[in-house]
Amino acid sequence: EEPLVRALTVDEGIAKVVLERVLDKPGIAAKIFKKLADYQISLDMIVQSMHKDGRNDVAFTVAKDDLQDTLNAMNEIKDEVEAKAVHYDDTIAKVSIVGVNILGSPEIIYGMFNTIASEDVNIDMISSSNSRVSCIISKSKIGKVADALAERFKLKAL
Amino acid sequence: EEPLVRALTVDEGIAKVVLERVLDKPGIAAKIFKKLADYQISLDMIVQSMHKDGRNDVAFTVAKDDLQDTLNAMNEIKDEVEAKAVHYDDTIAKVSIVGVNILGSPEIIYGMFNTIASEDVNIDMISSSNSRVSCIISKSKIGKVADALAERFKLKAL
Ligand SMILES: C[C@@H](O)[C@H](N)C(=O)O
Ligand SMILES: C[C@@H](O)[C@H](N)C(=O)O
């Protein structure tokens, strides 16, 4: 099927949490997410990129209402996974474009990032699956970015 | 709907590319993905986590057949985005669990990471959307990890 952006979604009810520089060895992610399961905390997005010097950052977003519980849970586990710090940011929002096989179209991907850049907005985090690309940006910019993306891809924001 | 893992997918035909320590300012991601669009390179997964000291890593996976073109494209752009290095790894594979609202179930997320950990396998990268969680691991481990996940979630690998 020809890749096409079918929808735009925006989520302002989330907060970002990052366990910085945890040990990059088997079992560490399991410990972190076991603790979140113990606290019954649903996840919104999980991102881990390349490790460096045997350490890695594990970043995820949760519902804002769960932020305090999440920080309590992460403070219980941070020594066991040797996190250098637990960072959080509740001034962020997520904007996503959705469509069948959109990663198959480099023009669509460039289109999203270029539209955000032309609003002079910095992209804080990126996560994707074959039918969705999500960017974390400053919450204060979400309105103008959503409008610009809706215009670029000729959509209505959901 | 009750979150449930409906499928397991495996992809061994990909390679990882990371632009390390690019400038973390508006427009940088657009430059990187413009170059990939110029080369007509489809993407498989894009991951960017938290920045540090005004720099960030932009990581993505492409089809193995596109790796050489991708490296050529990234070497053309690396100075403009001030990347410290262009890293690649073609010894990786991706395993994903798929299901409606699986991020809403912290037990399922923990289940995936714990199953990989119990095979003593390190998770290299993580990316997710609301219905899919993907892990990049060593290609040599993909068989046993896929089998263990299929057993854990009572599925057949697609
Ligand atoms: C690193 C890159 O994503 C940058 N933050 C941008 O917005 O383009
Ligand atoms: C950092 C964390 O993901 C680790 N690599 C693990 O496999 O658990």
Tell me what you see in this structure.
The radius of gyration of chain A is 17 Å and the shape is elongated. In chain A, the strands form 2 sheets. A 4-stranded antiparallel β-sheet of chain A has the order 1-6-8-7, covered by helices on one side. A 4-stranded antiparallel β-sheet of chain A has the order 3-4-2-5, covered by helices on one side. In chain A, a hairpin with a 2-residue loop joins strand 7 (125-129) and strand 8 (132-138). Chain A contains 4 helices and 8 strands. Chain A has helices at 28-38, 67-77, 106-118, 142-152; strands at residues 7-11, 14-23, 45-47, 55-63, 85-89, 92-98, 125-129, 132-138. In chain A, 51% of the residues are buried. With 158 residues, chain A is α+β, with helices and mostly antiparallel strands. The mean pLDDT of chain A is 96. The interface between A and B is large, with 59 and 59 residues. Bound molecules: threonine (THR) (2 copies). One threonine binds next to helix 1 and strand 4 of chain A.
